Amino acid sequence: MSAASGRIGASSWRERSVLPGFGLSFGILVTALSLIVLIPLAALVLKAASAGPEAIWALASSPRVQAALRLSFGAALLAASINLVFGLLIAWVLVRYDFPGRRFVDAAVDLPFALPTAVAGIALAAIYAPNGWIGSLLAPFGIRIGYTAAGVLVALIFIGLPFVVRTVQPVLAEMEAELEEAAALLGASRWRIIWSVILPPVLPAAMTGFVLAFARAVGEYGSVIFIAGNVPMVSEIAPLLIVIRLEQFDYAGAAVVGVLMLLLSFLLILFFNLLQAGLRRRLGHV
Amino acid sequence: MREGALARRLLIGLALTFLTLFLALPLAIVFVEALTRGWQAYRAALADPDSIAAIRLTLIVAAIAAPINIVAGIAGAWAIAKYEFRGKSLLTSLIDLPFSVSPVIAGLVYVLLFGAQGYFGPFLKSQGLQIIFALPGIVLATLFVTFPFIARELIPHMQSLGNADEEAALTLGASPWRTFLMVTLPNIKWSLLYGVLLCNARAMGEFGAVAVVSGKIRGLTTTMPLQIEILYNEYMGVAAFAVASLLALLALVTLAAKTFLEWRYADEIAAMRRH
Amino acid sequence: MHQFAIKPLLGRLFATAAFLFCFLVAAGGVRAQTMLLNVSYDPTRELYREINAAFIAEWNAANAKKITGIRQSHGGSGSQARAVIDGLNADVVTLALAGDIDAIASRTTKLARDWQTRLPNNASPYTSTIVFLVRKGNPKGVKDWPDLVKPGIQVITPNPKTSGGARWNYLAAWAYAERAFNKDEAKVRAYIANLLRNVPVLDTAARGATTTFTQRGIGDVFIAWENEAFLALAEFGADKFEIVVPSLSILAEPPVAAVDGNVDAKGTRAEAEAYLRFLYTPKAQAIIAKNFYRPRQPEHADPKDIAKFPNLTLVTIDEAFGGWAKAQPAHFGDGGTFDQLYKPGG
Fold it and tell me: Same domain for B3 and B94?
């Protein structure tokens, strides 16, 4: 269709390419992105701005909003970190060891991608509530997971679980065992091998998984509201605050909290992406 | 030189315990709770007209969202992976944006745009069009949250494949469309399928975004996840978990399909990865 | 070589989507004419399920233009009003309090301001009140309002910003305190602040709060709609919970209205108005009592249902607070007493 556009490559902002279709594909992408994502988000920013600087500042500095943002971002970072550790472990176990049911476990890791969050929410609530399967075991010790900030964490771990596993797994699988064996022959300790042979190529991939898990967890709503108990200042997440604002006719307030969330997560993700790009360059990857 | 048998067992045990606590138990409890009062109650719960309407609506939304996402995803991946241009990483970040935007915000933005008090509200009203609290709003919210899925799968794969195949085909005189259909598509079909599966699972299971724009009219604008919440709040635990079990089954089928394809075409995938 | 062809699959998907879309548009058009949408608050789910069946049977027996069904939407009363303001196409609204329907009248042109005078009894075909639900045996010995502010007592009540029931709860507590402390505003405020300090969870709607208390096992006392408390006893068994009737409570009048703008656009005014009038008929009044709401005409209800309702002193919103138009902004608006006194986590 637009084979010609492929040759406009002389324009300074993009490199020449013999492949056609840049104009078409770029056009579809930008159109869809604008209609579905960017224009609606612009409306959000516009609405938030309509609140006026004083109202925005009052909201941003209110203890309840800050507590909710702290919980959403803190719990998401913590959950992503836990998933980073266990994701590496699970990927390692799946790639390097053989055990009965390995294939089955491998397939099951993707469950959180496929299981709707509302289902996960009521299931986790049924398990970790004070009268649930695990909750009732912990209750005698005074440990409560359901309806506390720990409940939020549990839900976020669940939804972010597959990301690190899936990004790390192919890298581990492709890694030649010869390299490790050579290192071992040269007398390197197991820890040293893990540290300087295995980890460097795995790290950028793990980082990608970490960022994805974090990004997904920050905004999560469906699974969290069933298990968090939604106590203001304690287990109330930022997305719920948006819903509450909206339900109180406070459109601008809802938009302000939304924009705050967006700004924070976009900055964090940009930061992680740059970090990861730097990591790749330093470790000699493309 | 490898870990001893003990360390190995410990690591496997640790991984499996983690997976049991966070994956197996939640899945198991859905079915256990759904069947606590036996098959009869389970079947009756699913035969409820509102639940059937919710299932139908969910399927319709997914069927509309998937093709739009496929086109946008392929186009996006092609533009990003095949060319070098300035602002590419910004564009990639923008594609990823919906991942990190709370689903609640995804719903909110459409209320701000198309609600009766929204920016386009008066115009829509004069045209007699209903977007929020109706199918179009639900589809839009779903599109928003599922937007990155396919491009996200395709971009790294297409980047790793490089442009050599396409360039060869073009040099041999194939038309651009033919090149795309005969060379590119077959090359990327696995990641495309993977993306579609994930996108579809998310589309059918989306809760937060749809909850904001749905209006929760029973039998008309409640999707399956919303129906689960409604039933859960009406003390109909068995019914809630029965509908949940359908979505859990869908999740299992999704995983099984993916695993089967990976197993059936293992050689091809291996070849693809070596590329 | 490539067994899995994408192209036909894509084509098929498009065709299916297009077909489904057309089907839906067509089906939607046919459906709209004979369906009513009742946008209601949270605890009325069971009530309207029964009312709707009875009304449809009666209407269809008498009229040529049949009603095929009445759709329901439930949520916190405030959120539901917001949805109608945002364009939810409700034929009738049956909300928890007049203030929320007033909001629809004042923020849109869809509803006449005098809506509450169009039906008898302040347009409220049933009333209810606020009682306490406690765990069996009343382990914390909760007898009346003063017990709710004792240290170590956990009180469950929803968020008054979104839930109508919670606003009645709040005002009932306020009305009690005004009497107990002889209108000493400082003491009333201290009492409410102490009460709110004992609230560990603020659900957005009454049903969520019921679930928190009954199924999640959180809290010692649940300030609840009387009907919601009875329903909890019926659902979970009288061996788990019991109702405590406080010395004083508030007469809650959940009103109903047909949304003029919507019924005129959809051509459903006759049906919508008949539906609301039906709520005042003996048959509906009996259903109302059966579902634990207090009927306006108790003589039509089963005496056994009526006997369940305890006698208690009830204040009205008008005499204690000067009506919703005053109470809403003073207590629940931005910067109102709730905002001043609620210090979560503090």
Answer: no
